[in-house]
Amino acid sequence: MLRRLLPHPLLTALLTVVWMLLNNSATLGQFVMGLILGLIIPVITAAYWPDRPVLKKPMNIIGYVLIVMYDIVKSNIDVALIVLFKSNAARQPAWVTVPLDLKSPEAITVLAGTITMTPGTLTADLSSEGHALLVHCLDAPDPQAVCQDIKDRYESRLKEIFE
Amino acid sequence: MEMIAEIVITACLVIGGFFGLVGSYGLIKLDHPMARLHAPTKATTLGVGGVLIASMLYSWVFETHGSFHELLITLFLFITAPITANFIAKAYLHRHEQEEVLPDPQGDKTWAVLNRPAFSPEPEETQKG
C-alpha cells in the first residue's frame, strides 16, 4: 500500500525541495504545494521507472559530492593552465579504456558525469555491452594512471553508495 | 561587514569572468575537436559558478530576502554539461574516428557508437533511393 502511494520516496523529497527552490521561499504553503506535486508526479511517472536505484549508504553521497566539488575546482585550474601555458604540440592527448566494476545504470551515469566534470578527462562513449567507458584525456603522459585514479577515487566510492 | 561582502563578491565575479574567458579562449587555441570539448565543459564550470556564488551572496547581503535560484542553476548545469559533452563526443566519433584509433573495450566487442546491428542496412544503400 505504502509502496503504491509512495513509489519513489527520494523523488518525492527532491521534487519538494526543487519546488521550494524554484519559488524561492520556505513558507509552509509552498512546502505543502511542493509535497503535493512530489506525491502526484512519482505516481504518474512510476511506469517509466521500472528499476529504481537503491541507495545502500546514502550518507556517503555527501563525502562524494565534497570530493567531486574539490576536484572540479582543481580541474578548472588545471585545464586553464594547460590552455594558457602549454603549446598544442606539447600536449599528449590519449584515449583510455576504463573497465567498469559498476553494474547499475544510475551508478555508471553518475560516474560518466563525474569523469566529464573532473581533471582533464571526458567520457566519450560506453562499450557495446556496457562493461567499459571510453575516456578522452586532454593531457595524459601516463594514461594507465588516469584509469587507476578514476577507479580508486570515484568508482570505489560509487560502488559503496549504489551496490 | 558590507565592505567584506563587497570584496568577496567582487573576487567571485573576477574569478568567474577569468575562467569564462579562458574557457572561450581554449575553444580557439586548442587544435583538435576532442581537445576543444575540454575547455568549455570545465573551465566554464568555475566561470559560471563564480558568477552564481556572487549573485547568491549579493542577494543575501544586500537585498531584503535571499535567493536560492543559483543552487538550481548549478544543479541543472551539472546535469546538462556532461550530457552535452557526451553527445558532441559521440557525434565526433561517428563522423571522424576509426575503430583502430580507439583503445580496446576490454571484454566487449566494440564501442556503442561504432556498434552497428547486423540487420541495419549500410548507410550507402539507404542514400541511393
UniProtKB/TrEMBL annotation, chain A:
- Membrane association type: Multi-pass membrane protein
Q: Note the InterPro entries from the entry.
A: Cation_antiport_E
Query: According to its UniProt record, where is this protein located?
Result: Cell membrane
Coiled-coil region: none
The record's principal subcellular location, in a coarse class, is: membrane
Q: Does the keyword RNA-binding apply?
A: no
Record keywords: Cell membrane, Membrane, Transmembrane, Transmembrane helix
Which cellular component terms (GO) are annotated to the entry?
A: plasma membrane
One short Pfam family name for this protein? MNHE
Q: Report TM segments.
A: 5-22, 28-49, 61-85
PANTHER family reported in the protein's UniProt record = NA(+)/H(+) ANTIPORTER SUBUNIT E1, NA(+)_H(+) ANTIPORTER SUBUNIT E1
Q: Tell me which family the UniProt entry assigns to this protein.
A: Belongs to the CPA3 antiporters (TC 2.A.63) subunit E family.
Record protein name field: Multicomponent K+:H+ antiporter subunit E
Give the species. Donghicola tyrosinivorans
The lineage, from the top, is: Bacteria, Pseudomonadati, Pseudomonadota, Alphaproteobacteria, Rhodobacterales
TrEMBL record, chain B:
**Gene Ontology molecular function terms on file:** sodium:proton antiporter activity
Output the superkingdom of the source species: Bacteria
Record's Pfam families? Answer: PhaG_MnhG_YufB
InterPro entries from the entry?
PhaG_MnhG_YufB
- Coiled-coil ranges from the UniProt annotation: none
| Keywords assigned by UniProt, alphabetized | Membrane, Transmembrane, Transmembrane helix
Q: Where exactly are the transmembrane stretches of this chain?
A: 6-28, 40-62, 68-89
Q: Protein name, please?
A: Multicomponent K+:H+ antiporter subunit G
Q: What organism is this sequence from?
A: Donghicola tyrosinivorans
